[in-house]
Amino acid sequence: MKTAIQKLEKSVVEITVTIPTDTVQSYKNKAITRLGQHVEIDGFRKGHAPEAKLLEKIPTMMLLEEMADLAINDTYTKALQEHTLDIIGRPQIRITKIADNESLEYKITVTEFPAITLPEYKKIAKETSHTENIVVTDEDVEHVLTDLRKMRAHEKLHASETGHTHDHSHHEHDFKEEDLPVVDDAFAKSFGEFASLEEFKAKIKENVTAEKNHEAHQKNRIAILEKIISETTVDVPELLVESEIEKMFHTIKSDIARMGMSFEDYLKHSNKTEEAIRVDMRPDAEKRAKLELVLHGIKEKEKIAPNPEEVEAEVTKMLTYYKDADPVQTRLYVEHMIGNEMVFSFLENVQ
């Protein structure tokens, strides 16, 4: 087996593999046996006809393709290992030369992790990171209470009209103050085990604080990453961009289905083609793909890897919840998510 490697643009690598004639021929008997399982010959049970009879029935090209298939299966992993490549995604294989009693030639096209020049990410994280002083006012709490009162009034109205086909949506915002329930201890208790209105208000304050903290945390995280991404030099492979577009597309389709709308109706409604939507997604997809490369680069550099026990626990939890999930894919997903979270944490806590 001979291999030749050629680096193309955008981190695409092409390996040409040549298998000599005698090696290709050594797969002939196995190929005939395999094809013979599906060939009907009078007087013989399937898979039991003699080779000479089978050869009369099997077209030459079909036999050659079967031999090539067997040869490729046995050699393509070795061909990839000859050239130490850090590969993303699945290799694509196509036969470029196939003929009777000749050598076989095929090409493996793969995308490898591109060279990445990271900026001084620790310095950027330290300079960009800031903690917001979260303040929750009485007004914030009152705002939540008003929303809860409207919700209760709406439920009461809905219950009284059950059996009538009314559109209740227009009642959403036109409640007068006297239509809304009184805010007292009884009102608080209707939402759970609260001893008093004061305790309920304290809980609301705690929830709003947690929400605001989460928002501030996310904002801070995005600011750090945006700055690192903008100063990173990398040629983002097309394969990663396409993969991100697919993920975004899948999310949109799921969201539309959840709203009870068909994708065709959505296209008509938005006056767009599927192709146009994909084009619109590209800038975002490129950014996401670049983020993935940045996270991968920092993981490698800082030797950040998730704890196997933590991965195991999360995989078990997910497989219990999603019964049909593929265990291998689930593990990869969990390792990836925990690893990314560790990088975020690392950047946020740079001293």
Describe this structure in words.
This protein has 351 residues and is an alpha+beta fold. Among the domains are: 2-112, Trigger factor ribosome-binding domain (Alpha-Beta Plaits), CATH 3.30.70; 116-235, no CATH class. It is built from 13 helices and 6 strands. α6 (138-160) packs across α8 (197-230). The longest helix has 34 residues, at 197-230. The chain is elongated, with a radius of gyration of 31 Å. The two termini are 53 Å apart. The mean pLDDT is 90.
Decide which structural class fits the backbone. alpha+beta
Cα Rg? 31 Å
Relative strand content: 5-15%
User: Strand-and-helix sequence, N→C?
Assistant: EEHHHHEEEHHHHEHHHHH
Widest beta sheet: strand line-up:
1-2-4-3
Provide mean pLDDT, rounded: 90
Shape field: elongated
Helical proportion, percent range: 55-70%
First-to-last CA distance: 53 Å
Largest sheet: 4 strands, antiparallel
Question: Which regions contain 5 or more consecutive residues with pLDDT less than 50?
Answer: none
Total DSSP E strands? 6
Number of helices: 13
